[in-house]
Write a structure and sequence with these properties.
Number of domains: 2
Order of helices and strands: HHEEHHEE
Distance between the termini: 71 Å
Largest sheet: 2 strands, antiparallel
Strand content: 5-15%
Shape: elongated
Radius of gyration: 25 Å
Length: about 130
């Protein structure tokens, strides 16, 4: 019968960086395990969480990966400020634009057509907003 191993506390920040340096020649999986980045399933199988380990290392190094700075969302496409007419004749304004404008489902707009432009004015918005 296997002896149950005591769970190591997750190391973070300077402690994590110091421990990784101390572990020198070990594999990355062994380093993650030694720094506490693993779980034991109910069947007593050990699973190393490499993604959590890598994220902790990145954070400990002070690397900022989220350019938006708000820490929400999963990334995705950024607004290119260009759209094309779809084969069904529709113009689709993607979520990158609506998020950037802080729009919510159900927000309504008046559409004004120019020769080669479309102007949207939010219904209920003051005259100073456009």
């Amino acid at each position: 019968m296997a002896t149950k191993k005591k769970k190591i506390e997750l190391l973070t920040g300077e402690e994590l960086l110091k421990k990784v340096d101390e572990l020198g020649d070990l594999s990355k999986v062994e380093k993650a395990r030694e720094c506490g980045y693993y779980t034991v399933t109910k069947n007593n199988v050990e699973r190393v969480n490499m993604m959590k380990f890598y994220n902790a290392l990145i954070e400990a190094k002070g690397v900022e990966l989220d350019s938006s700075g708000n820490g929400h969302g999963r990334g995705g496409r950024s607004a290119s400020y260009r759209i094309s007419v779809q084969s069904n004749g529709n113009l689709l304004i993607g979520s990158a634009y609506t998020k950037k404008m802080s729009l919510n489902p159900g927000d309504e707009f008046e559409i004004t057509l120019g020769r080669k432009h479309i102007h949207l004015k939010q219904v209920g918005a003051g005259d100073d907003e456009e």
